[in-house]
Amino acid sequence: MSFEVFEKLEAKVQQAIDTITLLQMEIEELKEQNNSLRNDAQQVAGNHDALMRENQHLKEEQHVWQERLRALLGKMEEV
């Protein structure tokens, strides 16, 4: 009877080891996903910053063109 108990205990220990191994593998996969997502987030933030700078530049350029157009319209009204 004690041999049966020992076999059951051994099976439970093996099951626990298998579960632990599986969980460790899952943790590694999640760490890799986390790193990948962190890199993606940094790239998106960099793209956002670049787009914000470009947007600001285009707004400034638009303002310059508006001023030129106003100046030309003012000269046309004088004529």
TrEMBL record:
Belongs to the ZapB family. Residues 6-61 form a coiled coil. Signal peptide: none annotated. It is found in: Cytoplasm. The keyword Cell division applies. Keywords: Cell cycle, Cell division, Coiled coil, Cytoplasm, Septation. This is Cell division protein ZapB. Homodimer. The ends of the coiled-coil dimer bind to each other, forming polymers. Interacts with FtsZ. It holds the Pfam family ZapB. It comes from the Bacteria. Its main location: cytoplasm. GO terms for cellular component: cytoplasm. GO terms for biological process: division septum assembly; FtsZ-dependent cytokinesis. Non-essential, abundant cell division factor that is required for proper Z-ring formation. It is recruited early to the divisome by direct interaction with FtsZ, stimulating Z-ring assembly and thereby promoting cell division earlier in the cell cycle. Its recruitment to the Z-ring requires functional FtsA or ZipA.
